[in-house]
Amino acid sequence: MKKLLLLGAAGAATAAVTVAAVPVALGAVGFTAGGILAGSKAAAMMSAAAVANGGGVASGSLVAVLQSTAAAGMSGPVTAAVATVGSALGSATSWLLTRKK
Q: Which ranges does the record mark as transmembrane (predicted)?
């Protein structure tokens, strides 16, 4: 029972941290509310996407989705998906670190 509570707590904590970290990570690579920062990794991604698409960034592409998320925030379903992945990773990591060898 104690281990189950630990796994649940680790999952919940990691879910919250993951949701909070997404905007920070997007900003760190250059996706901001005001647009893509010149000279950033996001700018390099945008350039590559534009070249691959004949001069423009396609709607729905990774670059477009990441920029939209940075500008408007995560939608409810995206937040839920990110939290689910974070929770699973936290619980799995906790399980791996606490299992008996």
A: 43-66, 78-97
